[in-house]
Amino acid sequence: MEISDLLSPEAVIPNLKATSKKQALQEIAKHAAQLNGLHERAIFDCLLERERLGTTGVGNGIAIPHGKLSQLDKLHGVFARLDRPIDFDSIDEQPVDLLFLLLAPETAGADHLKALARISRLLRDKSVCEKLRGTDTAEGLYALLTQHETTAAA
């Protein structure tokens, strides 16, 4: 499972404006809805439901909000770099500025877990995160997110 299987260049937001966790989830849900044709509210509700189970703020300024929706037929990702870090109730209590949304079909099972693991591995790399934080174009962010997989595979 590669990042390019989850993410298209149109699914990268270089400068997401949000002042709260709820607003960030709303904005990323809106963007995802435009890409996959689902209703924005369904995506947002799915994300909120998952956050109630426990934060998806994994630490080091990173959050990986995710959920499953019956209307999906494949995995979808959206990456956003926030214009300002926000409180995300992260496990390390640090504000978040990098979000990687993952939406999966309800039947995804192991594929959903493999995709989460792949995203987590990528974003645990401090040098990748530094480069992502220093890049302000969608094209540059997409290249960094997907280039890493080709160098890792080589």
Low-pLDDT parts are 150-154
The number of helices is: 6
Structural class: alpha/beta
| Bulk shape | globular
Taking the alpha carbons of the first and last residues, their distance comes to 15 Å
What is the element string, with H for helices and E for strands? HEHHEEEEEHHH
| Major β-sheet annotation | 6 strands, mixed
The share of residues in extended strands comes to 15-25%
Integer average pLDDT: 92
The total strand number stands at: 6
Q: Evaluate the radius of gyration.
A: 14 Å
Residues in helices, as a percent range = 40-55%
Oligomer: single chain
Structure summarized in a few sentences:
Helix 2 packs across helix 3. By secondary structure, the chain is an alpha/beta fold.
Defining traits:
154 residues, single chain, alpha/beta, 6 strands, 6 helices, six-stranded mixed β-sheet, disordered C terminus, globular
Describe the structure.
With 154 residues, the protein is of the alpha/beta class. 47% of the residues lie in helices and 23% in strands. It is built from six helices and six strands, in the order H-E-H-H-E-E-E-E-E-H-H-H. The protein has helices spanning 3-6, 21-36, 40-53, 110-124, 126-133, 138-153, and strands at residues 12-16, 57-59, 62-63, 66-69, 76-86, 96-105. Strands 1, 2, 3, 4, 5 and 6 form a six-stranded mixed beta sheet that branches. Helix 2 (21-36) packs across helix 3 (40-53).
